[in-house]
Amino acid sequence: MAAVMAGMLAACGNTGTSSGNNTGKEETSKSETSKSETSKEEMSKEETSNDETGKVESGKPENGDKVNISFSLWDEVQKPVFDEIAAKFEEEHPDIHVDVQLTPWSQYWTKLDAAMGADSAADVFWMNTYLPKYAEAGVLEPLDSYIEKDGVQLSDYAEVVTKAYNYKEVQYCMPKGMDTVQVFFNRSIFDKYGVEVPKEGWTWDDMTAVAEQLKEKISEQGSDEYPILMELDPQPSFFNFIVQNGGYVLSEDNKTAGFDQPETVKAYQDIVDLMDKQLMPGSEVLSDTKGTDLFLSQKGAILFMGSWKAAVLDEASFASDIGTIAMPEKDENNHSVIGGLGFAMNAASKEKDAAWELIKYLSGEESNKMQAEAKIDMPALVSAQQYYTPNFKHVDANIFYEAAKTGELFPTSPSVADWLPSVNEISAKIFAKELTPEEGCQQMQEVTQKALDSES
To answer: Which is the most buried residue in 108, 193, 271, 292, by most CB within 10 A?
Structure first.
């Protein structure tokens, strides 16, 4: 096991993804572009320090009264909610104590890999689109026998998320939640400049025409708002546009990369064109300040963003002016890339029965209701979805579920830790004008195809 994980560390030490992702996607996912800046040596020292400062170890304590299990997550925004959920679980399971452990996103995967190699990882932990890598390494406990034994019905969950955590006909996670991408717009900016707000059924051409109107009016008044904002990460922007153009990141059988396809090149060119026409800020701005932060500062009229930011937008000072609408239609469709998280069990856990009880509770009705009421996730459990949308005072959250009906899963494969970070880095060079879309897409094709070929 240690040897297997050593190889995984070499492959994935400084990578990260979302679904993620969000509830603050910078921590939650991401989605998908963060990199750990901490070396393995530093991580080892930090883990030693954690062990010396009261980290609860899994297993039975000396008094034998309770079983201790650990649960690891990466989002500081969600941790207080899961502390409450764990407390309720302990009330119903007085023989089990749960230690909820927060590891920042930038360190999560490096620490998980190191802990797996030392057989000291948490009993239960969050999992995202990196699932195939960990399933192939044999460090995830298959859940099928537990699900069958307790009569858990996977059909009670959104199929798209259940499917995301079923790898080679084995269910490795119980679904947590899901997220989709849509457009948010600031009505007050449209009103300020006398431009009509977008309407459902709009197209990419409609959007650029509206943005041109806004740009002209903004310039006339000497103001500094941006017509369009987005975050230059896979899920909230360019992976969606690839799908919407009729292209693909990975083929259906995950054996062929699609970065060299004309639909993919066009997706990148479309973003570059928006920058060149000054309809959205350039990468020098967006690499320094997130598009969502600019929108929250009322510096943008249109924002492409995922449902993981909806709670933050709903609490904004101008929230009553925020509208939501599906993304504009591109060449083929306006489908959203869907992210999501799952609850996984450590295959090396010494307390698997207790770990399963926790996973079952975390993915159950009460836990999903608490998460929904806190607006931190679109529940994957269908019966709990009714608790999500009513908690938004201003943002129309129903559109998130509409997007999920036609959404497509975030692409992944066992070698995702090898190719996704490179895709992010090369994409950044395209947006910074260091590479043309054609040059960048060819480089991404070569890197990704090489990684896919190594899987066979």
So the answer is: 292
